[in-house]
Amino acid sequence: MVLMENEKSIQFLPFNAINEFMLPEYRLQVIQNVFQSLEQLPSEQQRAIHRIQKKYLKVPGFRNSSLAPVPLKVRNSVGAFEKSAEFVAEVLAAWKTIHNDLSKKVCQVLGEMGWEVLPDEANRTKLPGFMIKWPKADTYEVIEAKFAEMFPGHNYPEDDVRLMVVWMGGRLPYDLYN
Prior knowledge:
By secondary structure, the chain is α+β, with helices and mostly antiparallel strands. It contains seven helices and four strands; from the N terminus they run ββαααααβααβ.
């Protein structure tokens, strides 16, 4: 998808393109974290997750997939996560809410590094996907080093920091530029 804006074009990949950048085990962790923490989410996000479950998730033996045990929902969500940009967007938005402290810190780090990011509270599910332009100098390692410098002693897993950078930054490291 390409959006034109004053002679500049911004290209987007659908949210489900993130699957090319995620390890399958980590994808399962993220989905499981969301389904296990559903009660912690604001009611609006709970409704959004229930809506996408109903729309995209089929769990054998359950007419209503939201009633299935979490491990079954997680296992049967992989196909929807791989194919549906809407499913990915809602899952990642819920995951961000669950890890709100991390999202605020990642926004601070990206801001310090000169990235233009939407405010932490912005609803990223309304975007057409991830922008494909990524600053070549801002590798994950560089961003993680800046994160560690700004928040020494943090105990966030590397994969969580990287996923939050992608979600909050609204970018995938697809087209590296100087």
